[in-house]
């Protein structure tokens, strides 16, 4: 698959037989994050032009599924977990534990490549941020966000997400 190593080659440029052969030859890892946490991170990084979180969320909702940024599009639309059988799904907030397992499976020493990860602090910080920012949203925005990310919420175990019904 020489074309695979060419810059800009996308999986969609191959036929179904080639795609199946390529995907079967790789270990596929998908990193997932609570959609509401992704929105908070995107807002804090200044990727939206809005001055308030509520305005930013309205911008996201107005852009819709097809015109939105990859920073906030639902993961299901980006990673196709229903079509690609991932070998591992790693959840943000459990990186230290899950990356350690992946390194072990690859035959590498756990501590050799892992950066210092403080998952519990990250989880606590996002919980606090989520509470603060979720309270800024209108009831309608909350309902629309839950609908916008419904397939992510169904596909991945984000049970503590503020967007879960």
TrEMBL record:
Enumerate the subcellular locations listed in this protein's record, separating them with semicolons.
Golgi apparatus membrane
Kindly list the biological process annotations in GO that this record carries.
Answer: carbohydrate biosynthetic process; dermatan sulfate proteoglycan metabolic process
The record ties this protein, via InterPro entries, to:
Carb_sulfotrans_8-10 (IPR018011), Sulfotransferase (IPR005331)
Give membrane topology per the record. Answer: Single-pass type II membrane protein
Pfam families assigned to the protein according to its UniProt record, in alphabetical order:
Sulfotransfer_2 (PF03567)
Recorded GO MF terms: sulfotransferase activity
Q: Which GO terms describe its cellular component?
A: Golgi membrane
Its primary localisation, in coarse terms, equals Golgi
- Give the EC number(s) listed in the UniProt record: 2.8.2.-
Indicate yes or no for the key word Cell wall biogenesis/degradation.
no
Keyword annotations of the record: Carbohydrate metabolism, Glycoprotein, Golgi apparatus, Membrane, Signal-anchor, Transferase, Transmembrane, Transmembrane helix
User: What protein family does this chain belong to?
Assistant: Belongs to the sulfotransferase 2 family.
User: What name does this protein carry?
Assistant: Carbohydrate sulfotransferase
Q: Which organism is it from?
A: Rhabdornis inornatus
